[in-house]
Amino acid sequence: MSVENNVMRSVEKREAKVFEMMEPMEHEQVMFFYDKPTGLKGIIAVHNTVLGPSLGGCRIWEYANESDALWDVLRLSRGMTFKSSISGINLGGGKAVIIGNHKIKHDEAFWRRFGKFVDSLNGKYITAEDVGTSTDVMGIVMQETKYVTGKPISAGGMGDPSPYTAYGVFLGLKASVKEATGSDNLQGKKVAVQGVGHVGYTLVKHLTEAGAKVFITDLNASNLAEASKAFNATVVEPNEIYDLDVDVYAPCAMGATVNSDTIPRLKCSVIAGAANNQLADENVHGHMLSDRGILYAPDFLINAAGVINCYREVHSLGEAETMELIEKIYPRTLEIFKKAKAEKIPTQEAAIKIAVDRIEQQRMKQ
Ligand code: NAD
């Protein structure tokens, strides 16, 4: 069998799989990119551009295989569509993943090449930082494209969006506690925070200042030590976090931690955190949570302040206008709970319905 035949066979196999995955989630475009000199290899997924250009961070991760990378970028870009829509901003959903080691520092040529690939989409996709990338990386990417946000403040950007994200999560968490208990006073409430990285650390700060008793865990010993020292939070083992007798579980690490194994272990009445795609399967686990009487704050709704800060960069909004958009997370969270209750559906489903309705209304006007 010739090399060409081999390649054709694998291309056919992959194409069939890509469309199989794209169609049910309704993605507009998926771009695979590869650059031999730098070893750069990744995927950009544009989910929906009805409300505006797609925007979403660039994640670098050592995926076990290509299917995992594709699945991740498709799920994350779809989440970005819902996130921007429900936040009332005029952006669509997109995301980039790079298959590689996020722990090693990649050189300027690597990131400039990524910038060139982003630029080739002519503004249909705007990038930003995500897991494994940073404002410094965006400072390099911007040498090749104007379609980049989360740039360093010194380069005219808004810098790290995480403090804004953490504040938005705090507002969503408070609204959830109000729905569950009748009051949003966090004094004495017990909150378990999984992951004290960029967002988790600042969330712990807000929670501590509000008088909550905070439990923290992290796989990274230095992040854990820093947060525990700064806020006098109680440190627990990573696997122990699901069994704690707390009021709130706040996932601020990776996705899919709310699943068939963990839900039966949870004793909290509220789940509200920063991580994207917290429900391992939104069709199954939203219902499981409702059945157990656990109130779930949809992740893409309460962690939207980071993308709102990127939107600010695209449209040169002021601080007051940006904060006004972020403060809306509190009433919108309550609105979702009301809809979910009225329609007897899981909160995630109610949030997706509202996000999709806004897109459909706009689509009809086009
Ligand atoms: P980060 O990488 O700075 O922090 C994540 C922390 O979680 C790290 O300290 C890591 O060691 C820890 N961690 C990973 N797996 C863990 C596990 N199994 N148990 C305990 N700890 C674990 O990331 P971040 O920027 O703080 O983002 C956190 C989450 O929020 C991510 O899912 C991200 O996609 C999401 N998010 C972030 C932003 C933002 O503005 N940074 C915006 C929206 C959503």
Task: Identify the CATH homologous superfamily of the largest domain.
Answer: NAD(P)-binding Rossmann-like Domain
Q: How much is the radius of gyration in Å? A: 20 Å
Major sheet attributes: 6 strands, mixed
CATH topology of the largest domain: Rossmann fold
Structural write-up:
- The chain is an alpha/beta fold and 366 residues long.
- The chain has 2 domains: 3-18 and 27-71 and 94-154, 3-Layer(aba) Sandwich (Rossmann fold); 162-358, Rossmann fold.
- It contains 13 helices and 12 strands.
- It has helices at 3-25, 66-86, 108-119, 135-141, 162-181, 198-209, 221-231, 282-292, 299-302, 305-315, 319-327, 329-343, 347-365, and strands at residues 29-35, 40-48, 54-55, 58-61, 92-99, 125-126, 190-194, 213-217, 234-235, 248-251, 270-271, 295-296.
- The strands form 2 sheets. Strands 1, 2, 3, 4, 5 and 6 form a 6-stranded mixed sheet that branches. A 6-stranded parallel sheet has the order 9-8-7-10-11-12, sandwiched between helices.
- α2 links the parallel β4 (58-61) and β5 (92-99).
- α3 crosses α4 (135-141) and α10 packs antiparallel against α11 (319-327).
- The structure holds nicotinamide-adenine-dinucleotide.
- The site of nicotinamide-adenine-dinucleotide has 25 residues, from α5 and α6.
- Nicotinamide-adenine-dinucleotide (NAD) is lined by residues 131, 161-162, 165, 194-200, 217-220, 223, 238, 252-254, 274-276, 303, 306.
